[in-house]
Amino acid sequence: MAVTNYRALTLRKLLAGIALTITTCTQAAVLPEERTEFLFHQFDGGGVTISGPSVLVRKNVKETVSLWGNYYVDSVTSASVDVMTQGSPYTEERLQTSLGANFLYDRTTVSTSYTESSEDDYDAQTISFGISQDMFGDLTTVAMGFSRGNDIVMRNGDEDEEVQFEDEATHSRYNFAVTQILTKSWIVSLVGETVIDEGFLNNPYRSVRYTQPNGNIARQPENYPRTRNSDAFAIRSMYYIPYRAALKFEYRTYSDSWGIEASNYEIRYIHPYKDRWKFTGKYRGYSQTQANFYSDLFPYSNAQDFLASDKEMSAFSDSLIGVGVAYEVKSKYLRMLDKLTLNLYVDQMSFDYENFRNHRLSQGTDDTPAEYAAGEEPLYSFDATVIRFFVSIWY
């Protein structure tokens, strides 16, 4: 279902949309190291389980070109509050492949990539281009980038009508970043990003609740504006402290033309132990306001031009506590490799919604009455666990 791709897009945009830009800035004028990574990831929470493998391969050509490819799989099983109150549980799979290249010329790095993802009712293609330049004695890096995505959004029907609905959406991203080495121990990055989304931007399976004149509750399809402009700004700092440890801090703000304003901050501590171990701990907090056209329960049908009841359009906050460990494997049997590491990261997330209610509690059956009236249910919240285990091989 398209809900998977749309939710992923929303989380990337609101939580980590510019992380790639920041990473690119701090690595400008140096090609990434040759390596292969095998990853398994899993998200489990709110009635949704997303898991699958990923493989990344990067190979350098001489000292000026780096080529890479990535294969990524999401296997989704969903029985979320949205799905259970508007349909039935489902299972689907999303496949994503990416190809890219980095070109190094003197102090300039040019990057380009192509990504294609597919599921049974959502296809997406994205191209990106970026350039970074070192200057002022390699103490300053200036970078800018652009990406363009073209999506096909569908709604599947039954066997007699395989596709009930089809529309398109486009996504254009422009970003700019400056990274400055302030001292031998302190690096700071400033990043800005503008995103322009156009086309069908909501989920074709989602609907909103409204009250009928007789007091009963009915539903009608969501309807979003066909354009969305957003701006994000971030500051990120890394400070190296004794014993080879490091502190990272990031603060980010976000606002868009739908009335959503958001901010998040993250603190991370990295501590190596002896020669083989590296431990990581982090905390992140996030909060956002609701979209202008959001309501958990509308007073009547077609109450306004645009309608949204998706919980991601509501006002909510979340927090994350994460820990990680990396271990470098050293053996005489691995001498043909530069390095091999085993990595495990576990994040615990908590989501609290300020004006999205647990709709399941107002849905009764013929034998069991509803616990609450519509609009009076408790506010919704859930916890989720994210696990990532991967093997990195340098050669």
* N-to-C CA distance: 40 Å
Largest sheet: 16 strands, antiparallel, barrel
Q: How much strand content do the residues show?
A: over 45%
Strand order of the largest sheet: 1-2-3-4-5-6-7-8-9-12-13-14-15-16-17-18
Number of domains as seen in the coordinates: 1
Share of helical residues: under 10%
Taking Cα atoms only, what radius of gyration do you get, to the nearest Å? 23 Å
Shape: globular
Q: Please identify the structural class as seen in this structure.
A: mainly beta
The number of helical runs is: 3
**CATH topology descriptor:** Porin
Low-confidence stretches: 1-28
CATH architecture: Beta Barrel
In total, the number of strands is 18
**Overall pLDDT confidence:** 91
- The ordered string of helix (H) and strand (E) elements is HHEEEHEEEEEEEEEEEEEEE
CATH class: Mainly Beta
What are the defining features of this structure?
Porin; two-stranded antiparallel sheet; mainly beta; 16-stranded antiparallel barrel; 3 helices; 62% strand; disordered N terminus; 395 residues
Write up what this structure looks like.
The structure is a single chain. With 395 residues, the protein is mainly β. The chain has one domain: Porin, CATH 2.40.160. Helices cover 7% and strands 62% of the residues. The protein is built from three helices and 18 strands. It has helices at 2-15, 19-26, 81-86; strands at residues 35-45, 48-61, 65-78, 90-105, 108-119, 122-135, 140-156, 163-183, 186-199, 207-211, 217-221, 227-241, 245-256, 261-273, 277-288, 316-328, 339-357, 379-394. The strands form two sheets. A 16-stranded antiparallel barrel has the order 1-2-3-4-5-6-7-8-9-12-13-14-15-16-17-18. It has a two-stranded antiparallel sheet with strand order 10-11. A hairpin with a 2-residue loop joins strand 1 (35-45) and strand 2. The longest helix is centred in the N-terminal third of the chain and has 14 residues, at 2-15. The protein starts with a helix and ends with a strand. The model is unreliable at 1-28 (pLDDT under 50). This is DUF3570 domain-containing protein. InterPro entries: DUF3570.
